[in-house]
Design goal:
The complex is a heterodimer of chains A (334) and B (257). Chain A is mostly helical. Chain A is built from 14 helices and four strands. Chain A has one domain: ABC transporter involved in vitamin B12 uptake, BtuC (Orthogonal Bundle). Chain A has helices at 12-32, 35-61, 69-86, 91-113, 118-138, 140-143, 170-197, 200-210, 212-216, 222-248, 258-271, 278-296, 300-314, 318-332, and strands at residues 149-150, 157-158, 163-164, 250-251. Chain A has a two-stranded antiparallel ribbon. In chain A, helix 2 runs parallel beside helix 7 (170-197), helix 8 packs across helix 10 (222-248) and helix 11 runs parallel beside helix 14 (318-332). The two termini of chain A are 33 Å apart. Chain B has nine helices and ten strands. Classes of the chains: A mainly alpha (334), B alpha/beta (257).
């Protein structure tokens, strides 16, 4: 009898062994930490979705976008507009409408950006994002300008109206519910992204990243694939923006400004852009890092700058890359 | 039946006539060697026919269709594949994924993003069979960058082969490997290509290899075709011996000194 060759894919058992405990801890956490910590972690998970989307371009396609604030902001403003001008309060409608709007704009921006690669791609993405920032900043009678638009949690409903926050309990109840809501969407987004990067399409993206000439000689139309990757990437980041608005209660043009694009890059590099979980870990850690840096010193930007410099010099593969290397060394020893 | 017709093809780089008015017909199933000194235009010719470079003038007819201006992806779909002189792999992907990707692309499955690649048993089985044909099965899970030079050369050819081309260009498949490995690599390639009756054009410097495997030899010099014929014709062609070896005589190619 002929032995069937073992499958080359990732080991499902190992993945479940890692994922299940993490999920259990995340599910149980609000019982053991205070509301502030739960809120912080919710922010972290939201940013994780954004970084996950961003890394489809950086880690898997080899394109560094310095303009992902645009898609985060588009998602956020879409939701805020729906509250302000349509009186919508359903989170599901925000997600639906927000992803459609983000997707449409991403499709156009992506079409322009993927005609170039490397630094030209990065700068183009940055420039386009700043167009949106200018619009949000200058058209204040629509966007509220620097005052922004408010999205009060009290007007929100989750799960098609099943959960609302008109009753007592206020913000605390909202955070608890919202945490689980975000956790659910974060899990769905993570599974989706995992499937995408392990699909033939995901492999094709990695091939384009490694060697675009050879990819072309396999018959892969590289520009179309880059555009699709851009579209998916922007939509994920847009979803994060939609989820971020009710949590923040307010959206201002800051979220479209380029330093926020830089923060998304920072998160991803911090976690490690060469691993799937890198951006997730990076986003959560970055969120804590920034929060505590802001709380502890007036010079928090300097503190973050030092961390970034250290990171690039000492841990170029990020947190996850470094941990994986140490783990590999440990297990290889007899 | 002719599979490829190259008609008055020209490719100039400034004053350099890399491909200078080349006309060449290739029959289906032939194993052709393209030889000539460095700078003769062998790689340029392959580059133009495989759409890596655009021709300045002339025509390329592949299986009756004019493909002169067809982009790379269309020519690949039509059935023209190539390997590269300087190994061109997906370095961070495993040997398995390098081959599997070629098969996914050939089957039009690369736009599928809702299915896990490693669960496609058909592609996996074919990938393993290609790896086996090229003696790379033991390396299937290693990253391409971690393979030895000879293995990288074979993998480069295997990727092109996995596209199931009708016409396969191999640009110096044995350059940069030891003489000992050379024979083995060529044996592997020749048996696969002949076994599948693929028309192959191979750019090669080693005349022992060329004489051993070719049906027909095409000699290029300064961008033009100097001579062509079966191995015995070329072996006895004084002009060719003079250009390739700098010496001539009845036993110029076999004399070892």
């Amino acid at each position: 009898m002929q032995d069937k060759a073992p499958r080359t894919g990732p080991s499902m058992r190992l993945i479940l062994l890692c994922v299940v405990p993490v999920l259990v801890v995340l599910m149980a956490l609000p019982r053991f930490v205070d509301i502030y910590q739960t809120q912080l972690l919710t922010y972290g998970l939201v940013f994780a979705i954004a970084a996950l989307g961003f890394n489809l371009l950086l880690g898997y396609t080899g394109l560094l976008s310095f303009g992902h604030s645009a898609y985060f902001g588009l998602g956020a403003y879409s939701a805020a507009f729906m509250v302000r001008y349509l009186g919508v309060g359903s989170m599901e409608l925000f997600i639906l409408g927000g992803i459609i709007i983000t997707g449409l704009v991403t499709a156009v921006f992506g079409y322009i950006c993927v005609r170039h690669t490397r630094i030209f791609f990065s700068i183009l993405a940055l420039a386009l994002s700043q167009v949106l920032w200018t619009l949000a900043y200058k058209f204040f009678w629509v966007t509220g300008g620097t005052d922004g638009l408010r999205v009060p949690f009290g007007s929100l409903t989750l799960l098609g109206g099943l959960v609302d926050f008109k009753g007592g309990g206020g913000y605390q109840i909202f955070i608890i519910y919202y945490y689980y809501y975000v956790l659910l969407l974060f899990s769905v987004a993570t599974v989706l992204m995992w499937v995408i990067v392990h699909s033939p399409f995901g492999k094709a993206l990695q091939a384009i990243r490694d060697n675009e000439t050879r990819a072309q000689f396999l018959g892969i139309q590289i520009r179309r694939y880059r555009w699709l990757a851009f579209l998916i990437s922007g939509s994920f980041t847009g979803l994060a923006g939609i989820l971020w608005v009710p949590l923040n209660g307010l959206v201002t043009p800051d979220i479209l400004y380029w330093p926020f694009s830089g923060e998304i890059v920072f998160m991803t590099v911090l976690g490690g852009f060469r691993s799937f979980t890198g951006p997730i870990v990076g986003a959560v850690v970055f969120n804590y890092l920034k929060t505590y840096a802001v709380a502890s010193t007036e010079y928090w930007q300097m503190l973050l700058g030092i961390v970034l410099v250290m990171l690039v010099m000492v841990l170029p593969t990020g947190i996850v890359g470094t941990v994986a290397r140490f783990y590999g060394k440990l297990t290889r020893r007899p | 039946m002719e599979i490829l017709q190259i008609i008055n093809l020209k490719k100039y780089f400034g004053d350099t006539h890399a491909v200078d008015d080349v006309t060449l017909t290739i029959q289906e199933g032939e194993f052709i060697s393209l030889v000539g000194p460095n700078g003769a235009g062998k790689t340029s010719l392959v580059n133009v026919v495989s759409a890596y470079l655009r021709p300045d003038s002339g025509k390329i007819i592949f299986r009756g269709e004019d493909v002169t201006h067809a982009p790379v992806t269309e020519r690949v779909k039509a059935g023209i594949a190539r390997s590269f002189q300087l190994v061109n792999l997906f370095d961070d992907l495993s040997a398995f994924d390098n081959i599997a990707l070629a098969i996914f692309s050939r089957e039009g499955k690369t736009l599928n993003l809702a299915k896990l690649a490693h669960l496609d048993d058909e592609v996996s089985a074919e990938t393993d069979s290609v790896l086996g044909q090229f003696n790379l099965l033991s390396k299937r899970n290693e990253r391409a960058r971690d393979l030895a030079q000879g293995e990288r050369k074979l993998l480069d050819v295997a990727i092109a082969y996995a596209l199931k081309p009708k016409l396969l260009f191999l640009d110096e498949p044995t350059s940069g490997v030891s003489t000992r490995d050379k024979g083995q690599i060529m044996d592997t390639i020749a048996s696969v290509v002949r076994g599948e009756r693929i028309t192959a054009v191979i750019v090669e410097h080693d005349m022992d290899v060329v004489f051993k495997y070719s049906d027909r030899i095409v000699v290029m010099h300064q961008g033009a075709i100097l001579a062509q014929g079966v191995p015995d014709d070329i072996r006895n062609n004084d002009q060719v011996a003079m250009i390739l070896l700098g010496t001539s005589g009845p036993d110029a190619f076999t004399r070892k000194d």
